[in-house]
Here is the input.
Amino acid sequence: MWDFIRERQDQLLYNAFQHFSLVMQAVLVASVLAVLLAVVIVRYSWLQGLANALSAIGLTIPALALVGVMLALTGIQPISAFVAVAFYALLPVLRNAVVGLQGVDPTLVESARGMGMSPLAVLWRVRLPLAWPVIHAGVRTSTQMAMGIAAIAAYILGPGLGGYIFTGLAQIGGANAVNYALVATLGIVLVALVADVLLLLLGRLTISKGIRA
Amino acid sequence: MSATSDATASAGATVDPTGEAPAAKRRGRRLDPEMLLLLVLPPVLVALAFGAWVVWRQTADLDSVEQSQLAWSTVTSLMVEHVKLTVVAGLLVVAVAVPLGIALTRGRLKAASPVVVGLANAGQAAPAVGLIVLLALWLGFGFGTAIIALVVYGVLPVLRNTIVGLQGVDPTLVEAGRGIGMTSASVLLRVELPLALPVIMSGVRTALVLIVGTAALATFIDAGGLGAMIVSGINLFRNSLVVSGALLVALLALLVEWLGRVLEFVARPKGV
Amino acid sequence: MTTQHTTGHTSGISGAEIRLEEVVKRYPGQKTAAVESLSLTIPAGEIVMFVGPSGCGKTTSLKMINRLIEPTSGTILIDGEDVRKSSADELRRKIGYVIQGGSLFPHMTVAKNIAIVPKMLGWDASRVKGRVDDLLDLVGLDPSRYRDRYPRELSGGQQQRVGVARGLAADPPVILMDEPFGAVDPITRQRLQDELLSIQRELRKTIVCVTHDIDEAIKLGDRIVILREGGHIAQYDTPEVVLASPADDFVSDFVGSGSTLKQLSLARVNEVDLRETVTARIGEPTADAVQRAEAAGERSVIVLDDRDRPRGWPWLRQLKGDRIVEPTEDLVTVDERSTLNDALDTMLTSSHGAAVVTGDRDRYIGIVTFDTVTDHMRLLEDRAVEDRAHEQAAGERA
Here is the structure.
């Protein structure tokens, strides 16, 4: 296997990076969207049941099904993979953001209002920082899930390590079939691990020491 | 901020497809609007969507490829295959994970439970498609391999929830059971398991949803299922096939999730 | 009884007058108004306590002053200016707001919590930093030790102190407090009340404070507003008058009977004669202190730090070593504006049968002894007997 890796070193690294970058971009966009949505949902309580039900339903849709639909809609383009991955990434962040924002002690919000903070300042300086540990946990869940989704998306749509799994499948019986599938699978686990470590680091840097668990 | 610990616990390296806070919290939940929505909305949605698809299938102008791929007999057999994969794998998951979970909350094995759960969590980070393909390269193609892959994938949520559910049972109740002369086996059967059942059922539901979705990948190793329709649609450049397959898998997943939720609701002991 | 509350005021009043004119708060869908036409003038530089049973509209009335709740009708003026003249946010930056438990933001350090309003007002960094340290000092927390801590690293009492400091941060003329000391234990509460009185002696703000505790109202208030349901004023007067002549049955029920012990919550420590005793300073030779004490016939000394704050009250035999070291005991002191009731409580837990009295910034002033308090009680009783005799005589004459 070492020879296999060494021969394709550059290519593998490139694809690992592609995988990583696809997932991270999708998670980033999804997280921003999810938090914005959560702010609106928390504001209007009647939306909460609906949003929770829809996100539970959304997460049951099999990845291959969504990837297939995206293919039918937009054809083979990087954006298709991006949308499919971002769709799944959005839901856990949304759920956690709603829970996190709801968990903010209302007396703290009132206290902030009482000191003369504008609603936007209350959101930015009090509510979001306090909800951030929970949102951050959602982002980590999303990232892990998105790694697997991106592997499936690679079957038809996208860049990344997933393609090697299918190369291995196609070359069944060939000398390198197992190598392709194994290197890709382990590679994705490794990329997921790196991403999680980076996110943990981000958490250390951004979650206030005063509320860290 | 009691939600913090929940959300963090469900996050970790775990990939929970329903993204919900761990089940322990949901015990004693009343029939609130959200629950009602989740009990009523999916079957209605599924029935409507399936009806619409049937109407489309009957009226649409299909070419010969589409006609053969979307023949009722083909569709039915793919669906049956998919359901078979799901049901067999689901039963095996319960048969493996629940006893394992019980064992890991008893006696000396208790200490091993964090290790086992940690390992299972880490395994979950491996992409499903990679796992299936690797198993197939090792064990050969076909139904059996697909089942093994699906079981490996579905064990974690049930195992975790069994452990969490049993650990969540009030120890004074166990003591009370022992106190009135019940054996430890009958305390388990008549006190602990009934009380932990809602939590375990929620894990089963999560596992079933995971399995339905992952079973769509079984087609890559010639184990059938609705994934075949999607894949042949992609290979034959027929979007109608891709969308039909995607729709049917999604509907099946919704139905399974709904069934799980109903079971979970029914399994809730009265008065809890 | 004396109504002299203003002993030792040297600094000028920095507070502003608040006037409520026919203020009404009616919530949609509710039959009765939460506050039904409240008119009230709160003089500049005084502490006015809103007290009453739950649902009497006291918190609603308070929150209408900083527009956290908008009145349905009526006018509120601060320093003669309508509160609706500027935006609600601008108004609130000029009014301190302190609520139960301090309500500190857990993700910000103590310094950042205090600095919020000054920063919003655009103060420069060095001014903010200086202000934060001054305030921590004022509320009795060592700035270098507490500045960078997070709220969860503080005790309940310390959090509440920071909450008060945050309310004072931008030096607002008016401070609103909503059950500020509701979340702490009785001993800490008494200390915090004492500190508030000491701070107020220095700053002379206008403080409006909501409480459900009549004893707290009597202790802290220059005046008390007793509210009944619908925000109706049952009585608005000084604690002495409220205690001595309740306006009606509602008030007298709420206040409770005016026994001698209750009267003790009216008499302040600074109204009785304080005793001097021997003090020692941290770091001075032990022998000197012992010599002074023995010469004065005392068996103990009060140890002061370099800012005259009492830190311990050891017996002479407890003094070890060449020099006086910083005491480890947690000395409970009473402020000179504390009530004799508080002083009594404190000395009952002390082995000296007396309590150490402090003034501004916790500086040592003297001690109050058990005998002093019992003497004062006897005086009150004698006076009560005299009063009754007078009344009888008056009745006979009539």
Q: What stands out?
A: Chain A touches chain B through 64 residues (CB under 8 Å). The domain at 2-206 of chain A is CATH 1.10.3720.10 (MetI-like fold). Chain A has one domain: 2-206.
